[in-house]
Design brief:
alpha/beta, Rossmann fold, 4-stranded antiparallel sheet, 271 residues, single chain, globular, 2 domains
Length: 271
């Protein structure tokens, strides 16, 4: 392509990652890239290794083999709190809110290293703490407005619906300077109205604030709306990569999900 070839910037590079649990290999020699500024989908049948791969990238599990790069830096084996400080965040299929705190308070607890956590500052620098809390409250209110959670801002998080908790968890990622957010089943158990709100928020964060996303999801309509590319895993390995339409039409993907390909299905129908 010559000296002026397009340079693709990769936010995440996974190279030959494997993860064993005893004699079981849950992730098998996976290599993939997540481009900066993309919303990448990760799909596959149950047991395909998607969440295990997420957990390896996010530092929950140590890989058996392979490496992970974040924005050109080797982050293999770093702990979740270290990755958090570098801008790699993840949400969970089951939201992890503080149920006895309000929505606003949940958001305000996210940034690390707050002065109020220091006993010395609490005793001798109360003005500094008040100023910091005012800034945090302002940022939290911006997030609440962005995610249309104003009507529940002072509600205890434990009283929220499942969809509202997913929005709150997405909002928690907005309280720090995230480079990439891994979303694990953000649409699970969410009604269609709130799912649209969540999808709108993801698109706006991507478009307006430059967030890179990678999301595990079983809802193909939701994936098709948001994600390009889509990566398909099966039996611990990458099976296919392409647009949502391309992977939907891929015979190997259909076989992995249904146990039979379109050709065999058609042949069976004609028998």
């Amino acid at each position: 392509m010559g000296r002026f070839a397009l340079c693709i910037v990769r936010m995440i590079t996974v190279e030959n990652i494997s993860k064993n649990f005893g004699g079981i290999r849950a992730v098998n020699d996976v290599s993939l890239n997540i481009e900066t500024g993309s919303i990448t989908g990760l799909i596959g049948p149950n047991g395909a290794g998607k969440t295990t791969l997420f957990n390896v990238i996010a530092g929950v599990y140590q890989p058996t083999a392979g490496s992970v790069m974040l924005d050109g830096e080797d982050i293999t084996g770093l702990a979740p709190h270290q990755l958090f400080e570098k801008g790699l965040l993840r949400t969970f299929q089951i939201a992890h809110e503080f149920s006895t705190l309000t929505v606003r308070e949940n958001l305000m607890t996210v940034p690390a290293g707050q002065s109020g956590e220091s006993l010395i500052d609490a005793w001798f620098r109360p003005g500094k703490i008040r100023a910091e809390e005012a800034l945090l409250r302002e940022r939290a209110d911006d997030v609440i407005d962005f995610l249309q959670l104003g009507q529940v801002a002072d509600e205890l998080a434990g009283n929220l619906s499942g969809g509202q908790k997913k929005l709150l968890e997405l909002g928690r990622t907005m309280m720090v300077d995230a480079k990439i957010v891994f979303l694990d089943e953000v649409g699970a158990g969410v009604n269609r109205t709130l799912l649209k709100t969540i999808g709108d928020a993801i698109e706006r964060l991507n478009r307006e604030r430059g967030y890179t996303f990678c999301m595990i999801e079983h809802d193909m309509e939701f994936i098709s709306r948001l994600c390009d590319p889509v990566i398909v895993m099966a039996e611990g390995a990458v099976l296919a990569t392409g647009s949502a339409d391309e992977v939907r039409a891929n015979e190997a993907v259909i076989e992995a999900y249904l146990g039979t390909g379109l050709k065999n299905k058609a042949a069976g129908a004609g028998a």
